[in-house]
Amino acid sequence: MDFAMWIMYDRPWDEALARARWAEASGYHSFWYADHLMPFTEDGSTDPGDALECWTVLAAVGAVVPRLRLVSMVSPVSIHHPVLLAKRAVTTDHISGGRAVLGIGAGWQVNEHAGYGWELMEPGPRVKRFAEAIEIIHRLMRGERVTFDGTYYSLADAPLGPGPVNAKLPILVGTGSPRMLRLTARYADEWNTWGDPDEVARRLTRFLTACDVENRDPASLRRSAQANIFYVRNAEQRAKAEKEASANRTLIGGAAELVEQIGRYKELGVDEFAIGDYTFGDTRQERDDTYAAFHADVLTQLL
Predict the structure, then answer these.
(1) How far apart are alpha carbons 30 and 90 in whole angstroms?
(2) pLDDT, tens digit, for every residue of 33-42?
(3) Is residue 141 within 8 Å of 164, Cβ to Cβ?
(4) How far apart are CA 139 and CA 79, in angstroms?
(5) φ, ψ for residue 128 (rounded to 5)?
(6) What CATH number does the domain located at 2-301 have?
(7) Which of 231, 223, 230, 232 is nearest to 200 (CA)?
(8) What is the 3 state secondary structure string of 145-206?
(9) b/e code 39-75 from CB counts within 10 Å (16+ = b)
(10) Are strands 171-174 and 154-158 parallel, antiparallel or unpaired?
(11) Residue extents of the structural domains in the chain
(12) What distance in Å separates the CA atoms of residue 52 and residue 29, rounded to the nearest whole number?
């Protein structure tokens, strides 16, 4: 199983670049970056905090860090037109020598849509719009000149030039819902989902059902997952982590416990697991120290 570095979008550029370089030197496979333009708030209010733009960061990392895959997690079609997303991904692919992965979703974060004036539709039409967007991207990435007359998008003999560096640029969809899973099985190359091992097992059942409905070999899709990781080394840290834990999305433990918990993802057929920095400390020094300790005590036993 491979591992991905996933940092928050509010980290300053120098920290993002340093983390990517450290990840590459430490044996990570990918660098993930969330595509949000505003920090999340529970009540949907706007937040003036920092948020660097995803594809600019991925292209810049790709230019100076020579090995890591570069993954958007995930770009919402509620904000980005599918042709523009395809262009951004292919441009990053050429800058990096063929290492871009286009992660896409239907959109969900209320405050950035409300604050910047993008429509966040009800779930039904939101998925329908996503279905049109992923079909367009899929066809463009495979070299078609696309004519499309949909409810949300209209294209006339639209090309995508240049095409991906390699035979295709992977399309990743992050989801756990049955309708989105069917679209994943129909059009995507990779599937991503959240959850602890038990939750991922439940979602895996739905994924396999979607593949069966769409007549897609599930082994032909790369699978990735992530959870909130709390690496605790004393009772006080454990108690604090348990208060902050999200149900079905959290791993809490010392080194041996985390080795066992993360190892379960491999048993479930997960190809890549992301190590996020959002639970690794409030300061850069804390995050540096936690990553170093986690790598030495946990990850080296799993690589």
Answers:
(1) 17
(2) 999 999 999 9
(3) yes
(4) 20
(5) -65, -40
(6) 3.20.20.30
(7) 223
(8) CEEEECCCCEEEEECCCCCCCCCCCCEEEECCCHHHHHHHHHHCCEEEEECCHHHHHHHHHH
(9) beeeeeeeeeeebbebbebbbbbbeebeebbbbbbbb
(10) unpaired
(11) 2-301
(12) 22
Residue carrying structure tokens 């690794």: 280
pLDDT tens-digit map of 218-255 = 999 999 999 999 999 999 999 999 999 989 999 999 99
Q: φ and ψ at 231, to 5 degrees?
A: -90, 105
Quick check: pTM over 0.90?
yes
Contact indicator for 188, 222 with CB cutoff of 8 Å: no
Report CA dihedral (89, 79, 209, 176) to the nearest 10 degrees. Answer: 110
Q: How many of the other CB atoms lie within 10 Å of CB of 104?
A: 28
Encoded tokens for 178: 């049955």
3-state secondary structure of 108: coil
